[in-house]
Task: inverse folding
């Protein structure tokens, strides 16, 4: 059996969350290694669709320590390639101690250390770490909803994680499913090349045109501060809407190319059928559970379904823009995963696991720090986590 390599901190994941964590670990002088499953730098940005842009200008899309270089292209928001280049240069600039490709398969309790088990080049490798930061993101766990008839449909079916542009889909009529940013952006893009039907679980709510990633970060941060202070929950980002009006989406709205219809009831071998409109959906139930007032008049509306209830609309493809789930399978041996596959975070901490103070969760969304899944938002929880890790390591060495 291969002897474990000892390290103070193992960071699992080399995307934006892993880089931000490494930055603060380096600043604190804490020995660490970053284990990345990808062949190269850039995180999920290198695997997204080519037309994707960030939600904010470079100065509001930056990791700690070094601002993203100015964007010289069209519009104000940097392209996917620009962000990927920035993350690559960031990794080099701060000499991030990354090892790749390493596929981490399990984190186990090894007594006084956590054992991080993985595979590198076909060889089993293990790190014995005093603390672990899980920063694996969500990209590797696309969510496919259970819709009646999915297995019977004979056309193409892709998740947005597999989408690489309009050429990814056959010509003809495409059903785009999903009422978030991805669904709106890809539906807007595809209207130039395909006949598009955009189906959502609830009427899409577009944020005001002036809202970008910077505003979302500020709102999420203010909400966290209010909740920590015991003030009423104002809904945070969710109260603003669900969809940022990036230029492509705004143009499609203004030109009348982008309108949503209710979610389909089922797929058939050749297409999709709708049921009666007006029934409650799980999405709405989730929104109510989150404390958002469903009675608010936000101007969101559906168009009528393209065919009467029960009739089948022929389709050549379905594009599922239905989101992702946290990639936390490697933490299963610790027995800490609970509701929705998440790991509960300790009270008073943004990232520390409630069941094991040696484990931190980084960059998975607001439950691991306000706007922590964004470039601008991940720096703050990363810094706080490193502070807590430093205290843990100091205590372990007999320090204060």
Result:
């Amino acid at each position: 059996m291969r002897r474990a390599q000892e390290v103070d901190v193992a960071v699992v994941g080399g995307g934006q969350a892993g880089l931000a964590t490494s930055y603060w670990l380096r600043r604190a002088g804490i020995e660490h290694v970053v284990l990345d499953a990808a062949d190269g730098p850039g995180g999920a940005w290198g695997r997204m669709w080519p037309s994707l842009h960030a939600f904010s200008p470079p100065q509001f899309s930056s990791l700690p320590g070094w601002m993203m270089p100015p964007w010289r292209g069209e519009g104000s928001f940097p392209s996917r390639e620009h962000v990927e280049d920035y993350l690559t240069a960031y990794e080099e600039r701060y000499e991030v101690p990354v090892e790749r490709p390493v596929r981490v398969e399990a984190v186990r309790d090894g007594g006084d250390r956590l054992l991080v088990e993985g595979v590198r080049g076909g060889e089993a490798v293990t790190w014995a770490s005093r603390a672990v930061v899980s920063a694996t993101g969500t990209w590797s766990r696309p969510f496919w909803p259970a819709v009646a008839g999915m297995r019977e449909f004979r056309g193409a079916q892709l998740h947005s994680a597999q989408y690489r542009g309009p050429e990814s889909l056959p010509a003809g009529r495409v059903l785009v499913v999903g009422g978030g940013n991805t669904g709106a952006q890809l539906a807007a893009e595809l209207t130039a090349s395909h006949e598009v039907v955009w189906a959502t679980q609830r009427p899409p709510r577009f944020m005001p045109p002036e809202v970008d990633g910077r505003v979302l970060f500020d709102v999420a941060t203010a909400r966290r501060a209010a909740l920590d202070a015991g003030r009423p929950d104002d809904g945070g980002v969710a109260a603003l809407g669900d969809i940022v009006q990036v230029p492509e989406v705004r143009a499609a709205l203004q030109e009348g190319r982008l309108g949503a219809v209710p979610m389909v009831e089922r797929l058939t071998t050749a297409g999709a059928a709708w049921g009666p409109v007006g029934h409650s959906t799980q999405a709405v139930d989730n929104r109510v559970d989150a404390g958002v007032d469903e009675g608010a008049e936000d101007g969101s509306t559906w168009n009528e379904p393209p065919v009467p209830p029960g009739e089948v609309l022929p389709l050549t493809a379905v594009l599922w823009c239905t989101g992702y789930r946290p990639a936390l399978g490697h933490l299963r041996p610790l027995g800490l995963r609970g509701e929705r596959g998440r790991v509960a975070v300790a009270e008073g901490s943004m990232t520390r696991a409630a069941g094991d103070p040696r484990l931190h969760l980084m960059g998975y969304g607001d439950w691991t720090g306000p706007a922590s899944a964004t470039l601008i938002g991940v720096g703050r929880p990363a810094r706080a986590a490193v502070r807590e890790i430093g205290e843990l390591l100091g205590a372990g060495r007999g320090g204060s």
The helical segments are 16-27, 80-93, 181-190, 213-228, 237-240, 247-254, 282-289, 379-396. Residues 156-206+241-320 form a domain with the FAD/NAD(P)-binding domain fold (CATH 3.50.50.60).
